## 1
Amino acid sequence: MAPTGRAAGSMLAQDGSRFTIPVAGGPLVVELQDPPAQASWRFEVPAPSEMVVDLLDPGLCRVSGVEPAEVRLPAGYVPPPRLLLTINGVAHELVSRDERVLDRHYSRPRHQDIYVRSDAWLRAYHTARVRQARRLLGGVRGRLCDVGSGYSLVRAAGPWSFQISACDRDPEAVAVLREAGIDAVCAPASDPPFPGASFDAVFAGEIVEHLPDPERALRRWVELLRPGGRLVVTTPNRRHLLARVRGYEKVENPEHLFEWDLAELRLAIDEAGAAVDRIEGLALPLPVYVPGRGWRDLIAGTVRRVRPLPPAWTVRAIEAGRRVPGLCIDVAAVAHRVR
């Protein structure tokens, strides 16, 4: 999400949808750094003023008292909750935890398609995640709640001996799961509308980083478990090896409101009333310096640019960091309810 080789110049995060940024007088060029959309604004600002970026405003960017000289914005554009703009070349990262912004983004028809690419590395990564789910949920019986399920990685990893219930903000995904016979409801992952102590396991796959109040969500997921029930949480690791080598951390997914490191994940699970049994990693990056582009992951870069590469080799490479989770791009924690 941030410009190549460096972190964004500034970052603003808040509960609302509206951001105010001071701007100097003179020419003002604003460019949206959201690859699926090409958007820009040009203003002639007579004196120092304020630019307002409102993620619920169809126009998105405005300058007080100034009409834009030029606007390029796709019709019906719906911004993700994390947005990167450059203002006269300076990066500004805006993160909105507003529930209205989240509902609007996740309820957009086929919203997941915009981030899907025909990409060998992503296909192998998905396969590795399915294999991981089979391993981490092995032995579960009874009922499982898949929170923030999307189209349900748990379902893809089956068949299972347990019954799946699911919840997600995306009505299309919920409809697909219902057609498959799964008890699915359209609701935020942070507050599944199911009774407490009614599940033997809760699976939260790549969802906690999307939530405005992750600590509250974890407490709710633990409440759903019967005593001793299993909680599985997978999430990006903010302090993976590549971040450590390049000397700064950045959130690259425009849907992520934050990312934890390994210690923060452990603490959050503990404070939610569960005890961590084990943690494993997925996708250990191998940093390599590319002139003009900065530090890159050799594994992902090779898989995406070299043909042909056996898919099984790629999956094994992604799984290679399982025992060094603190250095991996993604971590998975398995815990059980203790109170």
## 2
Amino acid sequence: MRRTKIVSTLGPASSSLEVLRKMIAAGVDIVRLNFSHGTPDEKKNLVTVVRQAAKAEGKIVGILADLQGPKIRVAKFKNGKVFLKENAEFVLDAALAKDAGDENAVGIDYKELPQDVKPEDVLLLDDGRLVLVVKKIEGTRIICRVQVGGDLSNNKGINRQGGGLSAGALTDKDREDLKTALLLNADYIAISFVRSKDDVEETRALIAKEGGNAGIIAKIERIEAMVPDVLKGIIKSSDGIMVARGDLGVEIGDAEVPAAQKFMIECAAALNKPVITATQMMETMIHNVTPTRAEVSDVANAVLDGTDAVMLSAETATGDYPVLVIQTMDRVCLAAEKHPTTLAGNAHFDLRCERTDEAIAMSAMYTANHLNIKAIISLTETGKTTLWTSRIRSGIPIFGLSRSGNTLGRMALYRDVYPVEFDVTKFKTNTELKAAAIDVLKKSGYIKNDDLVVVTCGDHIGVTGGTNSLTILQVG
């Protein structure tokens, strides 16, 4: 069983019931809805099809709604694109009409950009493919020299090298999209271009105001977020982070990304939060049937670093082989998971626990790693115990049994965890409850007679935060 999870972005190539069923069968654990594209009605229809496909395949599939955030872009050109010549002058004009761009100037959607830049700043367009150096600012006009030229087409992104743009993480569009995502009962909301924990706390307040129950994934793609204390604050206030290597690489420089990735994964592990590693993991498989060796190494190294999940973007959203790329990523993850470092215990048993259920999770993993335990069964309302248990490497499968759809969807992201729908309130005693849980997993073929298993649960059935017991049982 693969322990690392696969997140797959949906799009035109992966929106039909037939294709989604094949993708889920191939190994998708979480689907990503990219709110940079499409309408609310399109998202609603897509979620309906995802749930139909997951039910047909008998699998729990989480839903991640990814908000666009303040993506700073050029506007449109009269002819769709222009060619920028090296050393030529080119103007970014916040007052220019949105479709009036030409080879001399183009509008910008972020009207505060002239206040955020100064002479000699370097602006990177289209993920760094084109480079402009700011010469001067005249009112709404940013007058630049083209340092690296090339084709520039409509709506391409703008980054300031070194970061420092003042745009907040949530736009008005994001706030409306957040309401849509909550109405669709998304399991996670991903927020883009997070600057600090304040952006996460603002999002959590908006979710609470709407009566939602979604977890928050903070996408780390700004240089400001990489300051160690700031990063730790973001991780603590969120329900997980995404190593968003695209825009982050533009801001900090591509050579800095591998070390930054390892640092983020280490920080998240220390703070008991899951991590998604994303962007260009198997980019060549958008059109090719095999990945490059470098892409294979990239995915494998993310697994060896301890990431919870690896993510596919255009590979499954618009690519030619959405099912094949999932099968390939599945194969690479399984091979990497054979390495001893992915199984080595990483628990710090000298640390004090703040909660009873956290102590039970630590005890469960200590027991599992020092006894011939075949599985850990966590009966959970919120998934907290399951999350803490999954933070310790062991290779022992953790089955998170819950009656809550959102809890099941959120557990689908956690490394080593396999969510199973199970209603604990149907049983009067813990003895009946444990026996039924074991029976469900036995019938599914996950465990067999004579296996030793660890079961964690609470004295009071169906109570949130009540996990306070650990039992070692022999199946059968």
## 3
Amino acid sequence: MYVKINGVNIFYEVKGSGAPVVTFHGAPGIGDCNEAMEYFSPLFNEFTFVFFDFRGSGLSDDASPFTYTHKQYVEDAEALVNYLGIKEFALFGGSYGGFIALEYALKYPERLTHLILRGTAGSSEIIKDAEENALKSGLPGITKELISALLRGNIRDEEELKKIFTAIYPLYSTRRETKKEEKEDLSQKRYHLVTHNTFFSKEFPLYDIRSKLCEISTPTLILAGVADWVTPPKYSLELHLLIPNSKLVIFEKSGHSIHKDEPEKFLKEIKTFLKKK
């Protein structure tokens, strides 16, 4: 379904029944809510999930690049939950969605019952580690020039964006997919070049909210994979040390995509956490 939020048509879906959980997807310009709808489906009989694509991502409309900011994403999310009539909810943010979730938690703490973060961080310091880890992987197609362009928002065209994302895709999970599975997963991606470049060249380099994290009082669950190439677990540990009422769970067999690598444990940890008052 679509609703016009702050002047932009936003795609959203509501699934399940029970206490509400709003989800923020990662990778603006590449990511969308489709994957989360699949991996959270076993919990639909206990919780109501709200999935949506941020402006300039997935099935939502593109917008002015000047509106591709963390602040605007927070306000779009706030407008959507208002439209849906949700007063309090748990918030899940994965990867880049975790950056937005943290900023939402700081702006609208009265809204949240729980905060769940997967593979995320409190600053843009991850860029150096991500670049080094990608290059050390030895995967074909990953060059210093391309990974730098991806992480710094200097991709020339959509074909180049597809090329580098396809090259790094195996890094996200410790579970080795077949070529057929990988092709099917990648075929579902919708690439928004301007969104990606704007966030990674202008917005993300300025991101550092570590000094504010002590203000978060919402019960927080932090999930990290040992083999996460883009947000290594040391950044989740940093979040845990800075957010007062937080719990850190390390997944020993996982990369960035914990939901793929250890799905049963991933869902169990989230379900147990959400059941706590």
